[in-house]
Specification:
The protein has 366 residues and is α/β, with parallel strands linked by helices. 21% of the residues lie in helices and 31% in strands. Helix 7 packs across helix 8.
Length: 366
């Protein structure tokens, strides 16, 4: 039996659809669109989507099912999922359907939505809060939406970070284990790490100590790492004053490297600023230009905030920039020994052209 559902945006725009996933049809968060075609499982389990409703622009989602080896964390982190058409046919042996996956983690989905119209609306009007609800609960849903805080007011890190330090964490089926004789050792602060980032370091012979976001300067230095690595994660970097203060205190004591949110934290720590984007970059088809080589390649991205170019110190150089809109996609400062990228060189999902960035991270570790 079909369950009617409604998607309502903060600005009043509504879309009708059919609920799938969780039995209780209710979810609220910031709604964003992702232009990827495959990779819905990695997207849903990416901790950077904590607090967000993800709209997939590809018209059919779910046709190859779900397998544990594609998890980017231990569970679904996105708040909800919006699709045009949900695939409801059979999947390969050993896999479960997307509907079953959302049911397993009690996550709301809505299908039958005109995702093209929704995406154009978000592109023109910006990402914003939204709520998914069943028609009989309209009044409660609208009250919740009216009072729900914006993403710039929500610190989401505590819900996705590990609670204690772990050396060479075991990542699960389909992932590598840490090397027995590591070439380098990274102190990695977990703001919502994707498993594939750790896997890329393992592949290059690096050991990793995964620290919670509450780690102190003394705890990091006591581990005697070759570099400090800042992970991806959800939310507004401007809220993470303690993280920024920690990184600032370690500049000059360790090489510091970062991805996505880690890049944004580095930006603020060295004296720069970040700002919210209108609708962000979410997908696996973002072209990026390397300012050092002139080469342009395609990257996977997931961020709603960016570095303000004009705010960067004179000693800081732009490493990468977006070939579509010119936004800062990476920076380096040899004086401060910091280096970071806004995009996801590990992809998962997406093109693997940028994975060599991890080779640079290895080289720059002392």
């Amino acid at each position: 039996m079909e369950r009617q559902a409604i998607l309502k945006l903060k600005d009043g725009k509504e879309f009708n659809g059919i609920a799938f996933g969780a039995e209780n049809t209710f979810s609220i968060g910031e709604i964003v669109f992702n232009t990827g075609i495959p990779g819905y499982q990695e997207i849903l389990t990416d901790p950077s989507y904590e607090g967000q409703i993800v709209t997939m622009t590809s018209p059919m989602i779910g046709n190859y099912g779900i397998t544990e080896s594609d998890y980017e964390s231990d569970s679904i982190k996105a708040t909800a999922m919006v699709v045009k058409k949900l695939y409801r046919g059979p999947v390969m042996k050993g896999r479960i359907t997307l509907d079953e996956f959302l049911r397993k983690y009690d996550i709301t989905g809505i299908e039958g939505v005109d995702t093209r119209s929704l995406t154009l609306h978000l592109r023109n009007n910006g990402s914003q809060n939204a709520v998914i609800f069943s028609p009989e609960h309209r009044e409660e849903a609208e009250k919740a939406l009216a009072s729900f805080p914006d993403i710039t007011e929500r610190d989401l890190i505590d819900g996705v970070s590990v609670k204690k330090a772990v050396y060479n964490p075991v990542l699960g089926e389909g992932f590598l284990n840490g090397p027995e004789k590591p070439l380098k050792h990274f102190a990695l602060i977990d703001y919502g790490i994707k498993r594939s980032i750790i896997n890329c370091l393992y592949k290059r012979g690096a050991a990793v100590t995964l620290f919670p976001h509450t780690v102190t300067k003394d705890e990091i230095l006591a581990a005697k790492p070759d570099a400090l690595f800042l992970s991806n994660g959800p939310g507004d970097p401007a809220l993470l004053t303690e993280a920024v203060a920690l990184v600032r205190s370690l500049i000059g004591k360790l090489p510091i490297e970062g991805i996505c949110l880690g890049h944004q934290i580095i930006t603020i720590a060295i004296g720069g600023k970040t700002e919210k984007m209108k609708f962000g970059h979410h997908g696996s088809n973002q072209p990026v230009r390397d300012t050092l080589t002139g080469r342009t390649f395609v990257t996977a991205q997931n961020h709603g905030f960016m570095t303000t170019r004009s705010s960067l110190p004179e000693t800081t150089s732009i490493w990468f920039e977006n070939a579509n809109d010119g936004t800062v996609e990476g920076l380096y400062d040899e004086t401060l020994n910091v280096r970071s990228v806004q995009f996801h060189p590990e992809a998962s999902p997406g093109p693997e052209e940028a994975e060599a960035i991890f080779d640079t991270f290895m080289e720059k570790a002392r």
